[in-house]
Amino acid sequence: MSFLLKILDVLAVAFLRGDLADPAFLVMNILRVFGMWGIFRKCGLTPWHAAIPCLREAKTGEAAGMEKEGRVAAFLYGISVLLAEADLLFFSEEHTEAIITVLQTFVGIILIIYMVRIHLSLIEVFDRSKWWIVLWILFDFIPAVLWGWLKRYQPLYKASELKHSAENYFSNAKAEVLDQGLTVNLEERTATEFFKKKYLLRDIHMYIQPGHMVLLLGGSGAGKTTFLNAVNGYEKAKAEVVLNGRNMYRDYKDMQYNIGFVPQQDLMRGSDSVYRTLTDAATMRLPAAFTREEREARVEEVMAIFGLTPVRNNLVVKLSGGQRKRLSIAMEFISNPSLFILDEPDSGLDGVMARELFLQLRQIADQGKIIIVITHTPDRVIDLFDDVIVLAKDENRTGRLAWYGSIEEARAFFGKEKMEEIVKSVNRREEGGEGRADEFIRKFVEVQHG
Question: How far apart are CA 247 and CA 244, in angstroms?
């Protein structure tokens, strides 16, 4: 007990001595406490906790939705102070100065890393630019005062709401894996940003039948492209992706040409002819067992399917926008894939040309292929789709499944007639939407549980 009291005495002396010895430090510390007092109040926490060292760091983590990290930061902060005042406790500077210096450096670096992660999360809670992290690192009392006491700085969610976040409404409703069609059971897709684990996608489960053309909807940042990259194996997630009975991740090398992926920007050489472009694609994508005659026959067949035969000798650079889009799709169609994924194939096309392109995609789907498409103008071609996937950002800014099913059922589920209205309903208010993403995510979880 006496040892504990001595530690507390050292902490008190250290804080007071540091504050009183340097007037500038004293002013900055007062402003820091003043600012965090306001932030804690806005975040639904006890304001006066800002005045207590260590507890302040722990509560900052809680305000940022990182309660565990906050506790670690509080512990490290206490250790760093004890090390700084080790001579008052039980160490002898003469024999341990070098060791203490190394320990101080190590603990200080880890503490900085944790506080950077916490402040980055707090920046997200207050919906501010990541550049604020510079001020938080160098002059933390400035953003603390501004965010704590100016009305324009408000948290999107209070700490209590963050605690009972989307963790409480995961579906865990895994889709059945069948011999035909596409099954996606995606638990999570994460990334590390400034030493912080960030969830990009979570809890997405679905089965898509062969012959279905599926629309992928979602607002900016909802994770549409990330989802497609996870499905085609380009950016693997913690997931099981099975196409026609074969695991995409496990057998990726053998299956990569069984998926056709058409990005928004084509990667064709403008100086090549249409025929040369498709011939090169056939050489790369068709099995080595194909003879030259078989590859040439396949090129001729694909050109005919996509109406490119009349321009076979034209240079790519001379093609119209619609012709370039068709050529991009034809390159992927060469290998006769079972799954087609297209990211805004109608970008830059007028209504007539876009309609013509989607009619060709519908014909491909009718051959038993699966087509998944992102488009920002879905309502002009919605009659050609079978199903719709709606991704939305939950309260933690993670892409979640707000709907998967038929077009008509989606209209009834969201109470909207147009697909663009559905996107607006799940977009956040500051993005011009209705801010109802979590409502529909929870509602769809209930649908999945029956």
Answer: 9
What's the average model confidence in pLDDT over 395-415? 92
Q: What is the pLDDT of residues 240-269, one digit of tens each?
A: 999 998 998 888 877 877 888 887 777 778
The CB density around residue 197, as the number of other CB atoms within 10 Å, is 10
**What is the three-class DSSP state of 161?**
helix
Cβ(217)–Cβ(423) below 8 Å:
yes
Which DSSP helix (H) or strand (E) runs through 188?
A: strand 182-193
Q: Which residues contact 114 (CB under 8 A, 6 or more apart)?
A: 69, 72, 73, 76
Q: How far apart are CA 16 and CA 29, in angstroms?
A: 11
Query: Structure pTM?
Result: 0.67
Tell me which residue of 124, 318, 342 sits closest to 225, measured CA to CA.
Answer: 342
> Tokens at residue 153, please?
């700085």
Q: Which of 161, 154, 67 is nearest to 118 (CA)?
A: 67
Give CA angle at 66 (60, 70), nearest 5°.
Answer: 50
166-448: in CATH 3.40.190.10: no
CA angle centred on 265, ends 264 and 269, rounded to 5°: 145
Q: Please give the full DSSP string across 326-362, using - where no structure is assigned.
A: HHHHHHHHTT--SEEEEESTTTT--HHHHHHHHHHHH
Measured CA distances, 267 to 221, 262, 270, 324 (Å): 24, 10, 9, 10
Asked whether the beta carbons of 196 and 114 are under 8 A apart, the reply is no
Enclosing H/E stretch for 183? strand 182-193
Placement of tokens 């956040």 in the chain: 428
DSSP state of 215: E
Q: What is the mean pLDDT of residues 133-145?
A: 91
Query: Which phi and psi (to 5°) does residue 48 adopt?
Result: -70, -10
> What ranges do the domains of the chain cover?
2-155, 166-448
296-317 average pLDDT score: 87
What is the percent of the chain with per-residue pLDDT over 90, rounded to a whole number?
27
On whether the CB atoms of residues 62 and 45 are closer than 8 A, the answer is yes
- The stretch 202-230 carries a mean pLDDT of 91
Q: Which amino acid is located at 96 in the chain?
A: T
Written as one letter, the residue type at 335 is: S
Q: How many helices (H) and strands (E) does the chain have?
A: 18, 10
pLDDT bucket at 107, cuts 50 / 70 / 90: confident
- Which helix (H) or strand (E) segment is 225 a member of? helix 224-231
Question: What is the dihedral sign for C-alpha 113, 119, 121, 124?
Answer: negative
Q: Is the pLDDT of residue 196 over 70?
A: no
Number of Cβ atoms within 10 Å of the Cβ of 294: 13
Q: Is the model's pLDDT at 5 over the cut of 80?
A: no
